[in-house]
């Protein structure tokens, strides 16, 4: 389906605006969080790495914001419905130290990006390209893996604490995602209905979550943590 034809469908357009709205506010909060986490960095090099990651998140935010403007949508209005659930998630999962902040950026954000990539298959080509680009690895994987593995090597007891932290992050993320889906019918319809010319049955949804679980397990293993 072409972009113009897809966006002519009110249900599809509403779903796209919701998706871009939640992505935009998520990127804005990621920028703010990473900038704050940089202050916890143990070295200047680590501080600079976090600052670079924060800057990349802000660039992603501006791209999504500009896309909403192109669609004739007020970005602030598109983001507003997601402010409370996202802020609630971040307030409940505020890291207590540098390592927890790294795990949150890698594992917690990672499962959200996996979900958006899965949704991208329902999108028109231009929106799909934007979502996939925004969800691409910012280069933080190698940096986070290196720092977390080094910390575990220095003190193996760290692994248990961080594994529990990662499980909590995933649980909270899934809970908030379910809340958002229940509140935003357009997003749910994109998955369960046929607003984009494609629909998912229960088997396909199960397969989607299976892929997301596999990716989560891979990330945990990369960090040296048990899923």
Number of domains: 1
What is the CATH superfamily? Answer: Ferritin, core subunit, four-helix bundle
**CATH topology description:** Ferritin
Helix content: over 70%
- Provide the CATH architecture: Up-down Bundle
Rg from Cα: 18 Å
The major sheet is characterized as:
none
Structural class by secondary-structure content: mainly alpha
Number of helices: 11
Fraction in beta strands:
under 5%
By DSSP, the count of extended strands is: 0
Unreliable stretches: none
Q: How do the SSEs run, as a string of H and E? A: HHHHHHHHHHH
CATH class bucket: Mainly Alpha
Q: Mean pLDDT, rounded to whole units?
A: 86
Ends: how far apart?
A: 39 Å
Task: Please tell me what the overall shape is.
Answer: globular
